[in-house]
Amino acid sequence: MSTITDSPAVEVTQQVSGPSAEEFVDRLMGSALGWAEVNAIHLGDRLGWYRDLADQGPSTHEELAARTNTSSRYAREWLEQQALTGILVADGEIDARDRRYALAPGPREALTDEHSLAYFAPFARMAGAVGPQLPALLEAYRAGTGVSWARFGADAREGQAEMNRPWLAQLPHVFAQVPQVQAALTRPGARIADVGAGGGWSSIALAGAHEGLQADGFDVDEPSVALARSNAREAGVSDRVRFHLADGDSIVSHGRYDAVFAFECIHDMPRPVDVLRAMREAVADDGVVVVMDERVGDGFDRPGELDALFYAFSLFVCLPDGMSHAPSAATGTVMRAGTLRDYALAAGFDGVSVLPIEGFGLWRFYELTF
Fold first, then answer.
1. Strand 2-4 relative to strand 257-263: parallel, antiparallel, unpaired?
2. pLDDT in tens, 289-336
3. Has domain 133-369 been given CATH number 1.20.1250.20?
4. Where are the domains of the chain?
5. For the whole model, what pTM was predicted?
6. In whole angstroms, what is the distance from residue 82 CA to residue 89 CA?
7. Model confidence over 189-214: pLDDT tens digits?
8. Three-class SS of residue 99?
């Protein structure tokens, strides 16, 4: 509560409610345990321990270490921690050398099934990418500069691509429920542009579902473009899906498109208005422009249930990446609908509407109208 008097010397008193020190420390203890759990998941994922347990079944620490060519002592410590926290199931009170550990069906799906919507292991990999960049982030926070996406390396790049992959595979089914988008995708000889394509899974999913559809994906991160091209070859669609190392605002040089998409990338861009303007110029007169971005609350006073997670992404990755280029809009992950609307209007669109797609993970779909 703030009180401001009318006296010449304005006196301001504040009463701030909140948790006690003990309550706050309890909260931080839970956060510390969560930090440890996510990092332990990162170890188990990257060392191949989860997949080995999923494939081989209940194992001792020595068996797991031998099969994965890792240290048995570290394997024992990790297995005990995983069992203590309920991720693994252990035999019980027997000698540690003979104790066997198993991966239950729920954690198995979340940690090893790359096609499941519950797949979580890539999130831990992304989180692991932040640690080495903390000194650079501190300097960026002091100087008002940034830390580019490229500096976070393969763990961030590949982790995000794999985390989004199961969801992007659902795009054909989702868009089949939106008549104007489905009409654009199913035109004979349809062409789409995928701005900020990353690992390419969005283009690959749409091309795989629509025979004859041609897709051009664009990204500024060279390793991501290489990854997307490899993924397209493995999926058997590289004859119809091409990826370009280019800014999003260069798409106009590739002709007109029946649909232009930007999946979870506008908030990262230093020049979102320029990119949206290029998307407007590149779409056919009877085409559609769709942006998928984080499902944030309408305002700071009305936060969405996921806003705390989105602010975490913004603090450590998205805002520093956006500010690594100058000039920058410095949007950050928490791009509210009003902000996107302002960008779209400045880019020449008439308006923005939310598409009737519910329950799609962390994201919301917008149609930019013209």
1. unpaired
2. 999 999 999 999 888 889 999 999 999 999 999 999 999 999 999 999
3. no
4. 21-112, 133-369
5. 0.91
6. 8
7. 999 999 999 999 999 999 999 999 99
8. coil
